[in-house]
């Protein structure tokens, strides 16, 4: 150490006055890491967490398994300047003993609602020294002379680039949620096709899937599987293109634009996919009646395992704001400043080039036959996004005119405006991509019919949640518009009902993986359920407490009050 003790402590003292954020593994958190970080002249960093509130918790694998952590910390240079969040590799455990390294307090946070196959940990640091090389330096570095250097002029841009790693997780979670959706719907549709209940006469009982209500509850989610499956794969391919650009050190404007668009898309695709799955799993649980509540049938586990997809890698409600910020930047840059519109590299903004024309449109469909096509919800969605974009922008301006700060104006414009805007934008993008796919000549003709129906159903059903805004902005007028959307949804559900089991067979994993007696591919729900129940541990045995209870049983009346 080139600092003498005195000067080192002086620096520590000055640091004490600051509250810094250190994020372990990934950036964010509920509990802040109040940490001090010094650059040592021997080019070591020193990390400290002043108290338990500074503990970073929830880190996947850190509780029991991981030996090294990626820590996001505020980087301070010896001149006292803070350069913002940077990623550091820190060894937290000895790989031979799995015991904590000196100065590191690391442990497991305990049982969670789900995902207990993975340990989540906490960590605190006390004077932990790490070499200068442990700073991952793609967005900022320290020279051998101890100077901070970065290729980014704007600290916010450097911060954004540093958070770019989170996009990959969000793209991944979008797909993970689709998998959960597939599992739950496979179980519920197979069960509903086999489970008979009531009927038109005393003698005849019909499968519950024959009921319009059951179809309306489940088949739109089946359509959502196909739409979101295609969309999430296409997003993953976009993400790969972006990663290849990063690896090839592509510094072009296009590469930077792809990064921003992926960020906007993934911050909304994760909410769309995880919320769709979460709502679907609950619907499936109820659609399977009491058996849906039996642990062995798996729906409870799927619900609990999908649940954190709504929270980790950024809470859905929080990251949706990143998407609406992106869209609002577009409107300010290209619309109100009078510049001509540009096309976004991944195409999700291209339709905004016709912003004014789209806004002047109204719903023109008059008969159900025309409404059974995905081009109908697609047009409506384009109008919806343009309208919500305009209204969100105006709402923020209005808040500012009332004297609100930028921070307050944004916060007060989320509900009914920016939040809905981000959701409508991602639903439109998912629908547009699936629509293009189902109309592509490379798709075999024999499959196109059913895929187009699924696409139309997904579009109409998603759109039906925005009916109030469609009337509010004048796209819909009169009750006929809603009637057409509703009757088309029911017609498509009924048309797809006979294909539902075959469609499930194309997406369900093997019975071994699905692991649900009522969801098995053979449809023998009662045989499978009966067999699983009888094989249950202790199913036919007396309760474990019986012996204790009967050998030490109080006499009847002996516990009665003596007075
Ligand atoms: C394979 C799948 C595996 C799944 C397992 C998952 C396990 C889960 C693990 C975790 O949960 S790890 C922890 C994950 N933590 C988070 O996701 C943190 C969520 N919070 C945030 O990302 C930030 O708080 C947030 C960006 C939402 C808001 O931060 P700020 O309000 O300080 O930032 P701001 O909005 O001012 O953004 C600064 C700039 O960075 C940009 N930016 C932010 N994130 C970016 C990103 N990811 N890519 C590109 N740009 C990004 C942003 O657009 C903006 O650009 P502009 O200045 O040009 O407007
Ligand atoms: C199973 C699991 C695994 C995880 N694994 C990891 C991991 O490996 N590494 C890691 O670093 N983290 C991990 N996390 C933590 C996770 O990333 C965070 O929980 C997540 O980012 C949400 O942050 P938070 O918990 O601080 O929520 P908070 O930000 O405290 O949010 C609480 C509530 O407040 C609302 N809210 C917050 N800010 C706003 C706002 N600006 N406007 C409106 N509403 C707002 C949110 O919508 C939310 O409903 C994990 C979490 C879970 C559940």
UniProtKB/TrEMBL annotation:
Pfam family, one: ACOX_C_alpha1
Entry-linked InterPro entries: ACOX_C_alpha1, Acyl-CoA_Oxase/DH_mid-dom_sf, Acyl-CoA_oxidase, Acyl-CoA_oxidase_C, AcylCo_DH-like_C, AcylCoA_DH/oxidase_NM_dom_sf
Keywords, comma-separated and alphabetical: FAD, Fatty acid metabolism, Flavoprotein, Lipid metabolism, Oxidoreductase, Peroxisome
Any one GO BP annotation for this protein: fatty acid beta-oxidation using acyl-CoA oxidase
Gene3D superfamilies linked to this entry: Butyryl-CoA Dehydrogenase, subunit A, domain 2, Butyryl-CoA Dehydrogenase, subunit A, domain 3
Cellular compartment(s): Peroxisome
Every Acyl-CoA oxidase C-terminal domain range: 375-550
Active-site residue numbers: 313 (proton acceptor)
Predominant cellular place of this UniProt entry's protein: other
Residues binding FAD: 60
Listed GO MF terms: FAD binding; fatty acid binding; pristanoyl-CoA oxidase activity
GO cellular component: peroxisome
Reactions accelerated catalytically: tetracosanoyl-CoA + O2 = (2E)-tetracosenoyl-CoA + H2O2; hexadecanoyl-CoA + O2 = (2E)-hexadecenoyl-CoA + H2O2; hexadecanedioyl-CoA + O2 = (2E)-hexadecenedioyl-CoA + H2O2; (2S)-pristanoyl-CoA + O2 = (2E)-pristenoyl-CoA + H2O2
Domain Acyl-CoA oxidase C-alpha1 per the UniProt entry, residue ranges: 164-328
Pathway linked to the protein: Lipid metabolism; peroxisomal fatty acid beta-oxidation
Cofactor: FAD
Family: Belongs to the acyl-CoA oxidase family.
Known role: Oxidizes the CoA-esters of 2-methyl-branched fatty acids.
Name the record gives this protein: Acyl-coenzyme A oxidase
Gene name per UniProt: ACOX3
């Amino acid at each position: 150490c080139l600092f003498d003790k005195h000067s080192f402590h002086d620096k520590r003292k000055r640091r004490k006055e600051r509250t810094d954020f250190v994020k372990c593994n990934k950036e964010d958190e509920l509990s802040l890491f109040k940490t001090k970080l010094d650059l040592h002249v021997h080019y070591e960093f020193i990390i400290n967490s002043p108290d338990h509130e500074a503990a970073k918790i929830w880190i996947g694998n850190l509780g029991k398994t991981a030996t090294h952590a990626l820590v996001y910390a505020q980087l301070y240079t010896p001149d006292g300047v803070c350069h913002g969040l940077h990623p550091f590799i820190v060894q937290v455990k000895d790989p031979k003993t799995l015991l904590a390294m000196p100065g590191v307090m690391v442990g497991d946070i305990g049982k969670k609602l789900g995902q207990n196959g993975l340990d989540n940990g906490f960590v605190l640091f006390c004077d932990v020294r790490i070499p200068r090389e442990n700073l991952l330096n793609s967005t900022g570095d320290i020279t051998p002379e101890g100077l901070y250097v970065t290729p980014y002029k704007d600290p916010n841009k450097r911060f954004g680039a540093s958070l770019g790693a989170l996009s990959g997780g969000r793209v991944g979670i979008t797909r993970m949620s689709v998998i959960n959706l597939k599992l739950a719907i496979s179980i519920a549709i197979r069960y509903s096709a086999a489970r008979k209940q009531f009927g038109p006469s005393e003698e005849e009982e019909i499968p519950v899937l024959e009921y319009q209500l059951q179809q309306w509850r489940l088949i739109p989610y089946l359509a959502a599987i196909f739409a979101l499956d295609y969309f999430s794969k296409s997003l993953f391919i976009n993400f790969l293109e972006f990663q290849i650009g990063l690896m090839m050190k592509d510094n072009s404007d296009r590469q930077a634009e792809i990064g921003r668009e992926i960020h906007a898309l993934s911050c909304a695709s994760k909410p769309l996919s995880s919320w769709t799955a979460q709502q679907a799993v609950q619907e499936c649980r109820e659609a399977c009646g009491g058996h849906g509540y039996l642990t062995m049938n798996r729906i409870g586990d799927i619900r609990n395992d999908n649940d954190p997809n709504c929270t980790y890698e950024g809470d859905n409600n929080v990251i949706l704001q990143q998407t609406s910020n992106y869209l609002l930047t577009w409107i300010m840059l290209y619309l109100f400043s009078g510049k001509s519109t540009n096309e976004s590299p991944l195409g999700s903004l291209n339709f905004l080039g016709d912003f004014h024309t789209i806004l002047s449109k109204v719903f023109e469909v008059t008969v159900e036959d025309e409404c059974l096509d995905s081009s109908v919800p697609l047009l409506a969605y384009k109008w919806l996004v343009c309208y919500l974009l305009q209204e969100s922008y105006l709402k923020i301006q209005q808040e500012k005119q009332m004297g609100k700060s930028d921070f307050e104006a944004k916060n007060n414009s989320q509900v009914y405006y920016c939040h809905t805007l981000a959701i409508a934008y991602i639903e439109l993008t998912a629908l547009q991509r699936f629509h293009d796919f189902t109309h592509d000549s490379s798709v075999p003709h024999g499959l196109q019919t059913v895929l187009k129906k699924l696409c139309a159903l997904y579009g109409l059903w998603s759109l039906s949640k925005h009916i109030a805004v469609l009337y509010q902005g004048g796209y819909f007028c009169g009750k006929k518009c809603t009637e057409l959307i509703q009757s088309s949804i029911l017609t498509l559900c009924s048309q797809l009902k006979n294909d539902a089991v075959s469609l499930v067979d194309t997406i369900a994993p093997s019975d071994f993986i699905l692991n649900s007696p009522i969801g098995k591919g053979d449809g023998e729900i009662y045989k499978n359920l009966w067999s699983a129940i009888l094989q249950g541990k202790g199913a036919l045995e007396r309760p474990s407490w019986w012996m204790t209870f009967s050998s030490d049983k109080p006499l009847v009346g002996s516990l009665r009050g003596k007075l």
